[in-house]
Amino acid sequence: QVQLVESGGGLVQAGDSLRLSCAASGATFGSLLMAWFRQAPGNEREFVANIWRSAGDTYYADSVKGRFTISRDNAKNTVYLQMNSLKPEDTGVYYCAARIGPGWSRMRSDYAYWGQGTQVTVSS
Prior knowledge:
The protein is mainly β. 0% of the residues lie in helices and 51% in strands. A hairpin with a 4-residue loop joins β7 and β8. The N and C termini lie far apart (40 Å). The model has no long low-confidence stretch (mean pLDDT 95).
């Protein structure tokens, strides 16, 4: 069983930055495909970014490309999401997710393990 705990959310103004962290336990972290998703009120949970096990490859939703950076520290069992130039439309609950097994995916149904979420609110 993999446990994920997010931190770092908050209330910021448009143009500000935030860094989210997700600490993992219960599995060999280096074997996990890690991702961030987000969910705004009334919307479905959507893919934001993910990072390959070796940290060599990263993928982003078009809406955050160039502003967000996902990274991981396998020695600390932690994945990060650096969010710059935040916009009001980035507001939502941000979830960390983990996938065990082969393959890469941006489908939420392919991730078996989820954190409790952390709220990010961007005011205009």
